[in-house]
């Protein structure tokens, strides 16, 4: 039942009819089981050791400049039911989406597995990254992200390196080298976009998440990423 609700986004009323129970029982059972599932499946969302990383690095990343690329990062937003509390509504409103959302930062390994998740309300990609991501970094790690992640100096302080597409810096056109670099990074960053699309096959977080489940969102997202 819990897995059906995650995958199909079924309402409690629908599941109550299917399983011959009251909607209240379904609600209590779901919130109980997401805690159990999150605890049991958390081991599947982890940062592999450097030895494992080196051994499993896909051939596409075995090229000069990307041997130490351990994290490919991106952010996405999950729609949530509009809160009635004005404070919570202000903290979750997205001007870009014109809807209440919660922002999700994900990191995957070059093999496509999730190795980090963090979420927040109305915040920038950079702020969410600074508040949550840096603790898992090790010396000489390399991170790939979109050009909106202006964290180059943050990573240099930690003896790490950032790969982002080159900016125009006031130029009218990219140079041939910048065009080639942009294409190269785009061909590798596509894996995090595919990972997010896989995550969104779970309809509970693809569509509007009920406000009653907002307190369980960390467990819900963790289960979906692990599965």
Short description:
This protein has 227 residues and is an alpha/beta fold. It is built from ten helices and six strands; from the N terminus they run ααααβαβββαβαβααα. The protein is globular.
- Envelope shape: globular
- By secondary-structure content and strand pairing, the structural class works out as alpha/beta
Please give the largest β-sheet.
6 strands, mixed
Q: Helix tally? A: 10
Set down the secondary structure blueprint:
Layout: H1 2-8, H2 12-19, H3 23-41, H4 50-56, E1 69-79, H5 86-92, E2 93-94, E3 99-108, E4 114-120, H6 125-132, E5 142-144, H7 152-157, E6 161-163, H8 176-199, H9 203-206, H10 217-226
Parallel strand pairs: 1-5, 5-6
Antiparallel strand pairs: 1-3, 2-3, 3-4
Helix pairs in contact: 2-3, 3-10
GO molecular function: metal ion binding
Domain Transposase Helix-turn-helix: 1-41
Protein name: DDE Tnp4 domain-containing protein
Give me some keywords for this one:
227 residues; alpha/beta; 10 helices; DDE Tnp4 domain-containing protein
Describe the structure.
With 227 residues, this protein is an alpha/beta fold. 44% of the residues lie in helices and 16% in strands. It is built from ten helices and six strands. The chain has helices at 2-8, 12-19, 23-41, 50-56, 86-92, 125-132, 152-157, 176-199, 203-206, 217-226, and strands at 69-79, 93-94, 99-108, 114-120, 142-144, 161-163. Strands 1, 2, 3, 4, 5 and 6 form a six-stranded mixed β-sheet that branches. Strand 2 (93-94) and strand 3 (99-108) form a beta hairpin. Helix 2 (12-19) crosses helix 3 and helix 3 (23-41) packs across helix 10. The longest helix has 24 residues, at 176-199. The chain starts with a helix and ends with a helix.
């Amino acid at each position: 039942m819990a897995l059906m609700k995650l995958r199909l986004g079924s309402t409690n009323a629908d599941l109550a009819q299917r399983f011959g129970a009251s909607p209240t029982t379904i609600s209590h059972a779901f919130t109980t089981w997401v805690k159990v599932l999150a605890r049991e499946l958390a081991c599947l969302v982890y940062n592999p050791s450097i030895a494992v990383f080196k051994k499993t690095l896909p051939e596409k990343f075995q090229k000069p400049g990307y041997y130490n690329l351990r994290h490919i990062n991106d952010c996405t937003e999950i729609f949530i039911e509009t809160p009635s509390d004005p404070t919570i509504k202000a903290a979750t409103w997205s001007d870009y989406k014109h809807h209440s959302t919660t922002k999700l930062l994900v990191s995957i390994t070059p093999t496509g597995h999730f190795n980090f998740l963090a979420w927040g309300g109305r915040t920038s990609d950079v702020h969410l990254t600074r508040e949550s991501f840096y603790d898992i970094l090790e010396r000489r790690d390399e991170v790939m992200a979109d050009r909106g992640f202006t964290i180059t100096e943050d990573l240099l302080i930690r003896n790490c390196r950032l790969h982002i597409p080159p900016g125009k810096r006031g130029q009218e056109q990219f140079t041939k080298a910048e065009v080639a670099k942009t294409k190269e990074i785009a061909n590798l960053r596509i894996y995090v976009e595919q990972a997010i699309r896989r995550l969104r096959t779970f309809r509970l977080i693809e569509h509007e998440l009920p406000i009653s489940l907002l307190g369980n969102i960390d467990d819900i997202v963790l289960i979906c990423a692990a599965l």
